[in-house]
Batch of 2 targets.
Target 1
Amino acid sequence: MIVDELPNSSVRERLVKLPPLAYGPLTLPSRYLLSPLAGYTNLPFRRIVREIGGVGLGTTDLVNARGLLEGKGKTLHLVETCPEDRPFAVQIFGSEPIVMRDAAQLLEGRGVDSIDINMGCPVQRITKGGAGASMMCRVDSTVELVRTVVESVRIPVTVKMRLGWDSTQLTAPKFAREFEQVGVAAVAIHGRTREQGFSGLVDREGIRKVVEAVEKIPVIGNGDIRSIADGERMFAETGCHGISMGRGALANPWIFRQFVEWETTGQYSPPGHFEDRLALLMRQFGYLEQQRGTERAIVSFRKMAHWYLKAMCVKAHLRNLMQSARTRSEFEAAVREIAESGPTRGTRTGVLPDLVIPVPSGPVENW
Ligand SMILES: Cc1cc2nc3c(=O)[nH]c(=O)nc-3n(C[C@H](O)[C@H](O)[C@H](O)COP(=O)(O)O)c2cc1C
C-alpha cells in the first residue's frame, strides 16, 4: 500500500472517505480501538468506555493460551464478557501452535468475535518461554503458528506486535506481509522495539513501513496517543487505518467518543469533569463488585482508583483513604469525603488538567 503523507487538515477528509474499519467480515463500529493493558482493560473498564461511546473494539489483557485450556480460574476471569461488551476480542499468548489453536477454537466456541495474538509483550516471563515479542526473532515458526491459528477458526485473527526485537531487527513489515498471506485480518503495531520497552519516542516512520508492506489488510497504529492531535499525527504520518489507545484511555475514558465526534464533525466535546469521573469510578467499581464480590473488588480496584483520583486532582490524604479502605462502608466514606472536598485544581464541573500516565520504567530485562 503506497502512503502519501497528509497535512493534518486533510486527515479527517481521508478518514471520512475510507470504508469503515473491518477485520475480515467483522465491521467495527469505529476506527478507535482500546489497546490491552494487563490489569486495567478488564470487563468493568471495557463496559464503562463502551457506555461513554466511540469504541471500535475492546480486547482483553493478554491471556495464557495454556491456562485457558486448563480452565484456570484467573485466566477464565480475564475472558469474562457480557452482551454490552461487543465487538470483543481476546488476546492470547503462547509459543506452541497446537495449544494456541485449541485456545482459539475454545474462544470461538464461546462466541468471541475476534482473536488477537500477542507478539509485542517485552516482559521476560513471557518472552523466555518463546512467546510475546520474542516471536519476532523467528520468522518461519512464528508464521506457521499464526497460520495454524488462522486456519483453525472462522472468526478473524489479528496480530499485535512491536517494530521488532531491537533496532537491528525491524522485522514488523516482513511479518505483516507474511501474515497477510496466511490470512491475518489486521495487524496492530506499537511503534517501539522490544529493546526500547516503553522508553524513547514512538517511531511513526516504522509504522508507516508496515502500512506500505501490506496489500489490503488494515494496520492499526499504536503508541502514545493521548489527544486528538496525537491521533491525527498518527494517521497523517503512517497512513494507518485505525488507531488504538491504552494509557490514553485510562487517563481519559472519553477519548474514543472524542475521536468519533472529531472524525464526523471536526469538533469534539471535553472529557468528563470531576463529578463525571467520580460517577464513572463508582459505576466501574459496581461492575467489578458484581463480578468479584465486594472484598476482592475493593482490593483489585486500587490500581485503577489510583489513576482515577490522580486525574481528578484529589488530595493525597483522600487518595490514601480510598486506597486503605477494606470494607464497603470505608470505601463509601472515602468517596463521600472525596466528593465533598472536590479537586485541588480547577472546579467540579470544569476541564481538569491532562494526566499523562507513565509506563513501567527500568530495563526491560528485569520485568
Ligand atoms: C501496564 C501495561 C500493560 C500492558 N498490557 C498489554 C497486554 O496485555 N497486551 C498487549 O498487547 N499490550 C499490552 N501493553 C501495551 C499496550 O497495549 C500499548 O501497546 C502500549 O501501552 C502503547 O500504547 P499507549 O501509549 O496507548 O498505552 C501494556 C502496556 C502497559 C503500560
Target 2
Amino acid sequence: MALHAIGRIRTPWQNLNECPRNITVDGETCTLEIDPRLSEGLTGLKAGDKIALLYWLDRANCDRLQRPSRRTGEIKGVFALRTPHRPNPIGLASIEIIAIDGTHISVRGLDCLDGTILLDIKPQNGASSGQQPSLD
Ligand SMILES: C[S@@+](CC[C@H](N)C(=O)[O-])C[C@H]1O[C@@H](n2cnc3c(N)ncnc32)[C@H](O)[C@@H]1O
C-alpha cells in the first residue's frame, strides 16, 4: 500500500499545545496548499462547497490501544476515540471551502499542526458543515 501527499495544510499552530482539540466552525483561517502537479484534480471545487479532508498526523505515537477520553476520562479503545494516536494516524475533518486561489484553498478551524500532510479531499454531498464528531 502506498500513500502520497497531495499537499500540506498551513495552520497557525506550531506546537501540539496550541492546536484546537478538534474542528471549530468559526476557527482560524487555514490554507490547503495542493501540489501544483495535481491542480487538475481541483476542477469543480468552489467556495461554499462542503468537503472532507483526510490528513496524516505525523507526530502521533501509537504506543497503546486504549486511552482515556479527553472529554470524559473514560478508558476506551482508540477506535472508539478521535485520538491522533492510532495505528494509522489519519485525521478527518468536515469543513467548508472559503475561497480557492489556484492551488491554495482557504478553510477555517482546522485542528492540526502547520505543515501537516494532506492525503485527500472528498466532497461532502448533502452533509452539513456544522455537524462535527464528538471531541473524543
Ligand atoms: C483529536 S485529533 C482530531 C483530528 C481530526 N479532526 C479527527 O477527528 O480525526 C486533533 C489533535 O491532534 C493533534 N495533532 C494535530 N496535528 C498533529 C500532527 N501533525 N501529529 C500528531 N498530532 C497532531 C493535536 O493535539 C490536536 O488537538
